[in-house]
Amino acid sequence: MTSPADIPGAYVRDVIALCARWHVPAAALTRGLPITAAALDAPTTRVPIAVCAEVVARAHRLTREPALALYAGWQMRLSSHGYLGFAAMTAPTVRAAIDLAVRYAATRTTAVGLVLEEAGADAALVIEERAPLGALREFAVLSLAAGLWQLGRALTGKPLVGTAECAFAAPPFVAQVPFAAGMMRFDRPAHRLRFARAILDLPITSADPVALELARGQCERELAAIVDAGLPARVRAAVTARLERGPGLPAIAKELRLSTRTLKRKLADRGTTFSAIVDDVRRQRALLLLDDRALSIGEIAARLGYTELANFTRAFRRWTGTTPAAHRRG
After folding, report:
1. How far apart are CA 181 and CA 195, in angstroms?
2. What is this structure's pTM?
3. Please, what are the domains in the chain?
């Protein structure tokens, strides 16, 4: 079975540093908790989700700043993401940097994952909740969404245009923040950043192929140290590649050099199933394809591997509570 999800101490350290702008001392945020400000500087420090949520709750209470998550995102630095941040910084393009983030996200936390979806001229970077975030959910998603935009601008040296969608209701403070009110959408089917696919080909100004290989090697070693943590992501990538042909379990297991029984067991140990992964791949791809008005709903169903339109409609209603046609009209 998986261990409880946690996050790197560097992320908590950044929240504490942010609160200093409101003259909130570190001790007020950590008092009585099983962490210290000094320990958070160590690269190996991990903090349980519940402890992170308590730090954030104190931060909100003491700063009296409801939009703290957005400030945390705007100050996000690549260095806080360890070797993964270094690898992204040295990648040649935005696509390459995102591919690294998708593959190695588990080296930072198993609570949140990233998935890149592409369709036509559009792309979406999906933020997946892979463990219960509890009271930390709103803060984690908002800060990550804002932070990813910030990092994209830092890597490319260009302003990036798009929208950020969240699956929860809009917090009251959003209407008072012009940046958030202009680009963020709420009560959507998934957390995701939507943007033009052409952005994926933008070059990164700090690209360095030699440094990239060094960073990638370290990320691989860190991923290997997390038993089977990357398996759901590998299954998802294989399913995505075979989606239109029909992503059958035996074919995917063979591709991953596993028996179907072993694959099922390992996915169960990670708290998921093969059918759940296929379902989510189809859901995310459907949401993106429905934005392309040039495609009929029947064509979209076929691209998702459905032989009958009615089956797609039933599945979509189960995912979102509405039909594909109603979602497109909305």
Report:
1. 17
2. 0.80
3. 6-201 (3.90.1520), 227-329 (1.10.10.60)
